[in-house]
Amino acid sequence: MPPPAAPRILGDFKIRRELGRGGMGVVYLARQLSLARDVALKVLTQEAGADADRILRFQREAALLGRLAHPNLVRVFVVGEDRGLHFLAMEYVEGTDLERVLARRLEPAGLPPTFASDFRRAAVGAARDAARGLGAAHAEGIVHRDVKPSNILLADDGRVVLADFGLARDLSAAALTRTGTTLGTPYYMSPEQFSGGGATPQADVYALGAVLYEAVTGRRPFDAPTPERLMTSILEDEPPPPRRLDARIDRDLETVVLKCLEKDPARRYADGAALAADLARYVDGEPIEAVAVGTLTRIVRRTRRRRVSLVFLLAAAALALGFLGWGLRGEAVRAREQAHDAVITALNEDALATARDRMDEELERRPGHAAVRYERAELALREKRWGDAASDFERLLEDGDDPAGAAAGLLLARSIERGAPVEEVPSGPVTSAREAYYRGLMHQTRRELDRALVWTERALELDEGYVEAWYALGGVHHRLGHVDAAEEAFARYDRVRSRADVKKRLGDFDMQKERFESAVAYFERYVRMEPGDVVGWNNLAAAHAKAAIRHARSDDPDAAAAFEREREAAEEALARAKECDADYFLVAYNDAVLRVFAGEIERAEARFRDAIRAFAGDSRTDPEWMGMWSGFAGMLNWTGEIGRALAILEEARAGNPAFEHDPNWIAAKVEALHLEGRVDDATRLLDRALAGPLGSAPVLRKLRAAIDAGF
After folding, report:
1. Predicted model pTM
2. Domain span at residue 154?
3. φ, ψ for residue 118, nearest 5 deg
């Protein structure tokens, strides 16, 4: 529903619902009344509308888009102003965007058909078409400056459309932005944009290359926990070659992607058209024009940026080349790298049995392959095979590869194998990421979470790409109650490796933050990996049910259909949960919720009481048990069964006086009293709660705001 600042009718347009919002404006789905067609209506916010520079930038976006006519660029229909609100009516592209597709890359059922059948080929095709759109803009002297997955729209009719030229710059005119202002989305910004360079077509090429890298590898070329470290990485580091992350990626595709990501703009494709042409050659199976850059060249470039002595580097390289038998040694190195790549690919796909087999095969051939042995030791730790882990750490210690790390790993594995925490964590300086990571795990065994956090963060300072350390960091933050930090760490892990419990955790975070559609996506991925887990199917049912309730409370014209769709999905997930464990108390509770949806109130209350009886915890202290009483009463309020809701709430309080101090119980009772017409009683109860220790409870403050607004 539009916010108060956006009227229902704006000029020739009737606003239907919000599609999204950004720094400058809100985009709505609207109906153009005179032509009876749907459009995407971008409305400059009132705050932005008071800023002359933003108005000029908004008008410039319209002027720039008005000059462009290309099937891969969004079309502009009307630019106008009504009652002080500036708006821009654009083509409404029905479909999805690449950002959402990338987030669901492991869920074929929820992907557009082309991506479901061959994700990588579809991603390359989308990048080719987006590059064609960029080429048309570049030919008109226009640079986009904010190419990112969410701005690449995938229409239901198969078209790929590049959108949101809000930061675009016309190279033929003076820039409106102040000197030194950096615009764009940091993950996809080129090095020269960070260092103050001007906007050029090559910057757009870099951004689209970063998008393509993410699409084909499953991770961004550069990532970091802070903007400062991200900027440093983009300026100084080389992105890991895509084939190192996934050996199945074609060499020609890797070459195209890395050419886009060259630090020097002159070494990239000249513009979008040149990139589109090479991507088209790749898709058509023709030879590409880009030439792969050798490893030595990349090392030289990196050392130049970091001011290491190039003379020393070249002398060392010449010495290595002079050794007899270098070619055979090179083949052995490549074989080891390929074996390690195969192990990493299996781990990234959560194919642990395959990963173990490949590790065992490689170590049988090459017992001294330290990287694979460390991976095998850490997999053994993950699977709680402490003796196997200790054996591998012993061998690594004997071989002298990162002896401090191997010694710390051995101490950790032996201590847990004995069934006891580490008696004393080593002290002293640490330069090995592995040692720091294992020290963090040691502190976890001692339940010293603050120290575990320090050492896990230290491991990531030493090696930001240490994937398992991101998982450990998420776990420590979660146990400390740092929800946002835990979510960020687990999301970083999830971008690289697929792990069932991470999907579930991320879904739980989304549920807490009422991001129900995203929670559905994570729980769907979880149950595909753990199809026999009743908790996973129950959580998926709950996420669909929560999404259904949100649609039921909306006045959007499509809300009824969306409600029914989510309700049916919740029923299907709950049926699977019943197959796993029909007696699980939350299965009975969610069944009660769905019976409320169906208007079967008597049956709903019976299932609610089944859930209460099945609960195995301490009912007087467990928030989940208390939440079922309050939540079910809230559902009854929603259906107008106010008398039943008040009876349930009083029954709960009579059995457990602690309910009088529970904000959810208070909120449900205030709502019931208000709906029954006992407004004074509702207000007194709410004000009394807000004046006491519960004054900061979000649910009560939200309810107060709703009542003040006329609820």
Report:
1. 0.54
2. 95-291
3. -155, 90
